[in-house]
Amino acid sequence: MTRPARAIIDPHAARHNLARGRALAPNSRVLAVVKADAYGHGVLRMARLFADADAYAVASLDEAVRLRDAGVSKPVVLLEGPFDASEVDAILALGLETVIHTAEQIAMFRARGRSLPVWLKFDTGMHRLGFAPADCDEVVAAVTAFARPLRFMTHFANAHRRGDASVAAQQERFAALLGERPGERSLANSGAIVARPDSHADWVRPGLMLYGVSPLDDEAAADLGLAPVMTLRSRLISVRHLRAGESVGYGGAFTCPEDMPVGVVAYGYADGYPRHARTGTPILVRGVRTQVIGNCSMDMMTVDLRPVPDARFGDPVTLWGAGLPIEDVARASATIPYELLCRVRMRAHYEEGSA
Ligand SMILES: *Cc1c(COP(=O)(O)O)cnc(C)c1O
């Protein structure tokens, strides 16, 4: 590992955030969401750090296989179920649990004739995955032959907006379609865990909050009692003094308004940094908050060193994490923290420790 870029994973923060989720939903079990390589943090590492969860959720069979191969024996739920009938044997052999959201998936399991735990997914308003509420009786009848136990779930479209009326409407639709039917229920992702205690039900499904990122628009993670798990670090590999009027980088997108020191950081879009981060995106140099300037390149980016005039070659840089919320970086680059985190795994070297 010859580049100084590092994703530092804080085990205490990870355990703290899971405990925070439990404290917020004390009567619910926790399905820890570790899809997309645990939001870019590394699925095996995070499954170990989230050992206190009741179960894990992933998006595909290969992610579940990695967990089982590593000796994880806890329940693992496939959030999208099988993509193809050829996956059914492996799902059964590995003792996985599955979401079922389409008639095609029902047919796959009926044809196999063996039982497994099923999370039947209903579309209560997000209009992505799930059965229509009106089909509930028919769908339940179709899965009873193999669903043991049968549980019910739905997913919110707008839980990231505190007080959004559509969340309450989805809750009501879910309650109405199930009525008194027996079976555990699950609705809440991170946003709802934090902001909608009345949605917690039997199982909560935290993702983003476990990684210490705020699931609510315009509310800081620290104010919600969450601590960032990933701190992304690199170093300055050049410090130069440019003259007023000189432009920096491809396209010359930043022109120095005065004579000023400019640093080059060993981090770029090939490491997952957003290419469209604008001048003004926050970044820390030796712990001092400054800004990205100009266009990010493949392996490098440029920073304004006026707030750190004595910065030198080799000084540490924090791209996000401890001391710089990823939410601020996402906002300045017109994306969401989820996307920034997932992209890090392209080329990251990980270490564990406190940042
Ligand atoms: C990804 C996902 C979650 C976790 O969402 P967060 O917003 O990260 O908490 C929960 N449930 C389902 C079905 C998901 O796909």
Summarize the structure.
By secondary structure, the chain is α/β, with parallel strands linked by helices. It has eleven helices and 18 strands.
Structure characteristics:
18 strands, alpha/beta, Lyase, Ornithine Decarboxylase, Chain A, domain 1, 355 residues, 2 domains, single chain, binds pyridoxal-5'-phosphate
Which helices and strands appear, and what pairs or packs with what?
Elements: E1 6-9, H1 11-24, E2 29-33, H2 35-40, H3 43-49, E3 55-58, H4 61-69, E4 76-78, H5 88-93, E5 97-100, H6 103-112, E6 116-121, H7 136-143, E7 147-153, H8 165-178, E8 185-186, H9 190-195, E9 203-204, E10 230-242, E11 247-248, E12 254-255, E13 260-265, E14 282-285, E15 288-293, E16 301-304, E17 316-320, H10 326-332, H11 337-344, E18 350-352
Parallel strand pairs: 1-18, 2-3, 2-9, 3-4, 4-5, 5-6, 6-7, 7-8
Antiparallel strand pairs: 1-10, 10-13, 10-17, 11-12, 13-16, 14-15, 14-17, 15-16
Bound molecules: pyridoxal-5'-phosphate.
The site of pyridoxal-5'-phosphate (PLP) has 12 residues, from helix 9.
Describe the structure.
- There is one protein chain.
- The protein has 355 residues and is α/β, with parallel strands linked by helices.
- It has two domains: 11-213, TIM Barrel (Alpha-Beta Barrel), CATH 3.20.20; 230-352, Lyase, Ornithine Decarboxylase, Chain A, domain 1, CATH 2.40.37.
- Helices cover 27% and strands 23% of the residues.
- It has an eight-stranded parallel β-sheet. The chain has a six-stranded antiparallel beta barrel with strand order 10-13-16-15-14-17.
- The relative contact order is 0.15.
- Bound molecules: pyridoxal-5'-phosphate.
